[in-house]
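@channel sequence for tomorrow's demo:
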Amino acid sequence: MNEHAVFLSGDNFFDTPNYHISSVYGDYLRRPSKYMLDYTFLEHYHNFSEMVFITEGNTIQTINGIDYPVQSGDLFLIEGNTTHCFHPGTKFCLFNLLFDKMTLPLPWQELQYLPGYTMFFETEPRVRKPDTFRNHLRLNEYDSVQLAEKLVQLANFIRFKGNPYSRIEGLQLLLEIITDISKRYERHFENTDSPFPKINNAIVLMKKKFHRVITLEELASVAGLSERSFTRQFKIITQDTPIGYLMKIRLEHAKDYLKNTSLSISEIAFKCGFADSNYFTKFFKTQCKVSPRQWRKNSRG
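structure tokens (generated this afternoon):
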């Protein structure tokens, strides 16, 4: 992460506890000077999700230091703690849908069973790179208008979130938007030979079963590929090996346990799929430069 990037707190965007959602429209095509003091063109990051929808024009979005040309109809997600900004001087209009799903009572667990959801909202942002950004979603004119209308309606519900009916209707509409995008993204790959959905199936298995032994044979089977083809395609899409990617998933869960529970190091190791707590400690220190015990202490201040 760029050390010069600005951290933006959720307090700048959400003013209601346990209801962190905001739908914001920006016009940098007709009135660019109006927004000179916002962070759109300055590298920044935050700890919540941001869905970007370009409605007009074209621009370049820099994500983690890499430039991605985008244009009208393009729709993609930026995860929390990801540095990003747009190139100054470019002319475009967009909607930003900002949300922290930890504060929103939606059926996130059930959404995990939708391939389109896991591909768009989870896998694509994490494996994104220039030569695979073609996997992002581009809406046609009709679908763009429909989504824009829903985002305007959502903004109105959020504006009156003090009203319990508006609050519930806002959540209902957000779920409708997420579900609709998931459907469209799944259809995006119909009648194509893209390996992305197949690799996504394997990644979903890793995320659900990280706590147990997962074999290459099992991953290749759920992807519907031979082990050789699976390993090659996995490397192309994620820039990592299957075991390397799985170990990163286990590491992230281990950090969560260390920060938010009082479980012992051995208990955390076994819960995260490490058969040997000594190996877990060695692996953790290699990846994080400190021991699990020290990381726990640092994370709690």
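heads up for whoever presents: The chain has a mean pLDDT of 92.
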